[in-house]
């Protein structure tokens, strides 16, 4: 690692270089006060520089103890971690199957599809399902819902929460009896209470919001899912400078990945579709372009197959691509049955 | 919030002055740069940049609400929990009470199916006194296709609500509450939208109808990115009006044959 890549300010870097410090090794044996004298800066500032340097050089040098590179994990450890990873159910058996149990925590999942396919429905469903208590096989967590389009429907959230409670009490009849005695019946109100809702009105607010999430989640540790509906909306307008857009988007994606890992929560990004002109024909693809598609770990595309709704795993490092039918009912997302078909109007 | 001034955010003066000196005055400008770029530009250490960005982000972020608090607010403040009944039984049931407040509702259908008729009826319903189940407010009707017919409206009114319209002077009163705008170009439409946003609350407007969106946009542009761009702006502006004033907005759209994808 070179000096030029250290996260210190330009003037400090200039002083270092002009005083002849060009490599890490030349800095590593210095005391803060010598450096302060050499560079004519305060002791505190010198200390800060040395701290940054020692952090930077640690990445280069073997640590000696158990790990060869600091912060690395062996694949074996990761396997164990992955196995204990929790999933948020989608309430649709087929969809859970192809997703390997549901939407994974610690990962960023992008869900896209044409208008009316049920993206927001799935979003609300996940915000409710994350709250299913641990003894019912859920996570017992809370949800953050970031709404950029104004499409979050309270009435729907209430209906889905009611249906979820109904399903839970239905299930508990089959489960051990002793559950019921100590179980206090959940109220739809409690479910709504645990959905933190943010209405974002511009892309600046969206970036600010994502920066702020780190602090917010530190204060609300039981948040297990962050849903952004949709990640696209503000980035599809008001942008003349596409390079800036790409930069902002990839910065945002990085921050979200970091959040997912740090707080082991699931990040779900809903995306819109756009038409792409390739080889003389128009094709539907997800919006925001190619560089964005690289930044999501998992990508699920929702589409119409005749009269039925299908989900397709378009991209995932661990799951095979597969598709499964699902349906949107009054109770929310459910396993597709032949009854629940779209009533064609066109 | 995006254009909020950095100087008013209560950052420590030393760092606030550096932002000002580099001509980064708004949150939008600061957040459009990465932390690394900011560090270069402001010539301060990473830690200070990170904390400044975190501070700005926190202030710009929208306030936290839980879905429950939203629900309580709505039940408390709004007539019929935020719905304008259409008086069509099946439709009202499906819509959970009627045309919802605070969001955009689009009416689509082939020519002659009755989109404009539907809008006329809704306008009447919104202007009716509360004792008859109306919203007792003004209606702004943006008539882009010159299809609004006052005679037809009065006719609908006197047939559907004879008890109101046969009272002396009531027809005048009701019709007087409906303000019709006839923009002839997109720029004119844009201008009236901006005016409407300001005057909505003061003038007790309870419904906004736009008949139709398509007529305005298709007239002006060819297909392509410019059109998409401007349409996007209009839609988000109309949405913001809906949310900020919590009134129902109804937009009609034409039915077109398109290239099958």
UniProtKB/TrEMBL annotation, chain A:
Main subcellular localization, coarse class? nucleus
Q: Which UniProt keywords apply?
A: ATP-binding, DNA damage, DNA recombination, DNA repair, DNA-binding, Nucleotide-binding, Nucleus
Q: Does the keyword Nucleus apply?
A: yes
The GO annotation for biological process reads:
meiotic DNA recombinase assembly; reciprocal meiotic recombination
| Annotated ranges, domain RecA family profile | 84-273
Q: List the GO molecular function terms.
A: ATP binding; ATP-dependent DNA damage sensor activity; crossover junction DNA endonuclease activity; four-way junction DNA binding
> GO CC terms on record?
Rad51B-Rad51C-Rad51D-XRCC2 complex; Rad51C-XRCC3 complex; replication fork
Q: Which residues form a coiled coil?
A: none
Please give the superkingdom of this protein's source.
Eukaryota
Q: Where in the cell is it found?
A: Nucleus
Q: Which Pfam families match?
A: Rad51
Q: Which InterPro entries match?
A: DNA_recomb/repair_RecA-like, HR_Repair_Mediator, P-loop_NTPase, Rad51_C, RecA_ATP-bd
Q: What role does it play?
A: Involved in the homologous recombination repair (HRR) pathway of double-stranded DNA breaks arising during DNA replication or induced by DNA-damaging agents.
Q: Which family does it belong to?
A: Belongs to the RecA family. RAD51 subfamily.
UniProt protein name: DNA repair protein RAD51 homolog 3
What is the native source organism of this protein? Vitis rotundifolia (Muscadine grape)
TrEMBL record, chain B:
Predominantly, its location class is nucleus
> Where in this chain does the record put each RecA family profile domain?
80-255
Q: Which InterPro entries match?
A: AAA+_ATPase, HHH_XRCC3_RAD51B, P-loop_NTPase, Rad51_C, RAD51B, RecA_ATP-bd
Q: Which GO terms describe its molecular function?
A: ATP binding; ATP-dependent DNA damage sensor activity; double-stranded DNA binding; four-way junction DNA binding; single-stranded DNA binding
The protein's matches in SMART domains, at most eight in alphabetical order, are given as: AAA
Q: Does the keyword Transmembrane helix apply?
A: no
GO cellular component terms? Rad51B-Rad51C-Rad51D-XRCC2 complex; replication fork
Question: Sorted alphabetically, which keywords does the UniProt record give?
Answer: DNA damage, DNA recombination, DNA-binding, Nucleus
State if Protease is listed as a keyword: no
**For this chain's UniProt record, which GO biological process terms are given?**
double-strand break repair via homologous recombination
Kindly list the places in or outside the cell where this protein is found, as annotated in its UniProt entry: Nucleus
Which Pfam families is this protein grouped with? HHH_XRCC3_RpoA (PF26169), Rad51 (PF08423)
PANTHER family for the chain: DNA REPAIR PROTEIN RAD51 HOMOLOG 2
**Can you tell me which family this protein belongs to?**
Belongs to the RecA family. RAD51 subfamily.
Q: What is this protein's record name?
A: RecA family profile 1 domain-containing protein
